[in-house]
Amino acid sequence: MAETYSVENEHYGVTIDRVHGRIVSVVDKARRYDVISVPGEGDNFRILVPLPDMLSNYVIGSAQALSSCDVVGDRMTLKWEGPLRAVRGELDMDVTMGIALVGEAIEFTCAVRNGTEYPLNEVWYPILGGMLGIGPEAQRRETMALVPQANQFWLQNLFTDFGNTRGQTLGVTGAEHIFGYPGFMPMPWVSLFHRGLDCGLCFSALERTPRVKMLRMALEAGTSERRVGGNWPRDDETETPTGVAMNWSHHPFTKPGETFEGATIVLQGHAGDWREAARLYRSWFDTQYEVLDAGADWIRGEPAFLHAMCMLPEDSIHLPFKDLAAWGQAAKDRGIGSVCLGGWNIGGHDRGYPHYEPDPRLGTWAELEAGVRACKAMGLRVYFFVNCQPVDLTTDWNKRELHKYGVMDSFGVPYFVTSTWGMGTLGARAPLSMGRPFGEVNPAHPEVRELLIRQMVKLVEIGADGLHIDKFFQTPFDFNPRLTHTNPDRAMHEGMLLYVEELLAACREVNPEFCFSFEASWDRLMPYCNTSWWRNFDDPMKAAFPERGLSLGIAQPFDFSKANHGILGGDVLMISPANFLHGADHPPTQKLLEYLDEINQIRRELWGTVSCGAMVDASDGLFKRREPMLRVGGTFGESENGRWTLFSNERTGKRVAVLANEGLEAMTAEGIAPADGGSGGCRVLQAFADEVETNWPVSVDVPGERVVFIAER
After folding, report:
1. 0.85 exceeded by the pTM?
2. Which of 220, 329, 580, 670 has its Cα between 20 and 30 A from that of 350?
């Protein structure tokens, strides 16, 4: 009898050992390598069923006896029938794992029958051990790992320098990375890719259920911190070869007598780099959801907006309602098309939540409505800064009622967010916990959704065109006992989706063009909204969702380079003079606003490409390609201060190059042309200059701290 079971097709071969059901080989035939490079490091699953006196009561799948394996065509079903052996005794549970070769992917599924008297807290699968990278042995160590993070990314040369994301990694013998979705990760996939070989491996967790999953990568043999060339152990330092183990985990808290069924975990090799992993994920996403088109709401169509705080939480007033008309007129005069009001509510900015009514020190409802209507009469769009989950723990409302809906941890303790959101005094600004203490309420409670939406509808009734929902928290778990219709790992995320669906329905009954932006990074919100706040780094979500826009704060009067950085990234510019305390008439900010007015006129014309289009290449950073798709020479091309981005329109395929001079002196960019030579001519557009029609290649002078657009005709 053979010692293994296997399935294969033209793309992959997967081998399982007969005794324990360990995954011992995953061969990518097209790339001609085995994902599990180290013999003997096969693995499969791990389950945690805590006992009162043994919280770390794990069932180690690789130590269990495999009961059966049914192989039918290119699929296999593995079963481990109970009782299964745990750290503390035996447990009445069965595990079923499916492995299927589906086209150019491998799909893993897992179900666990919980016949114990305890909740099932963790399920890890599939555990792929012994990984040393992609491709032939001589080159595989050059494999990179990219994990999408909230508005940024984690990029690591994992198989040379494993890195350290946890500091002192207590609880495990070696090194470990853990990334959670939703929340820390905006999309549930990781890309392993090799630039030199132009290929990659995508490892994703696909399902519609909005619940907590975690990606784990471990180098259990240990590392050498501060070692030159990377922190991996040398071959002569370990008794046997070692590799990275990688898996997804669920945290379902499955009750006794119930059966856990997990997400489909997909492993797929591919040509190309991490961008192809993003494309593969988007292809699946489009089969499940309809992503909001970039032109579907007015917020996404605005290249910039003005944002101000009417009152700070320490009671200092900066924009009373009687001044809103003049404030709006100053914005309109400087080419700004939309305005966002913060700190208008009871207590001011970051205080009193969720009491979203006008603070009487700023004015009355009538005065607020009059100010909003005056701004709208000028042609401005108006929206309000609000939140979803934050609750000011000091309010009588919280002590009387709202505490019932608070997020709780597994010990029944209310979740505490922060007391460091103060700003109006030195002590409040310092990290001394002198600001208002905040907790969270969960919109999974119908009562919370009702009290929020009722207040939001009132704002729309007085003229608001939309809302910005800030602090849209994705706290992983909520154990509040009132939430009997959901699970701790789903409660917050289901609540958020219910909230936005009901909010949109209610507000659009008043204003059909109502829309919102939000402060979070979660793919599941893309069917409802495609504008989020705060970009400071390259964002892998842009590759999966070109429709998505991020805001970048322009808060200081001389932020020319920062604004240009945002223009390179296709960002929505949040203009907030003097750190949100002044309006567009702030004297020191006038030169910057004159420049941005010119630039935003150009961006409006090109918006479908330079913000809503695909970012196909860049001079540096995450989006830089191995073979540039744009040629740029001259002093600009030679200087580290000469930066560029190449965008492509998703509908027309036409491209726009954005060049930014981050230095103070003018530079000349020569011979600018797409790598394919371009088709037809191009237009050169820049601030304070007439548009020039010309042909590729083109040369142009780029002034210091300025941008130039070159648009394909």
Report:
1. yes
2. 329
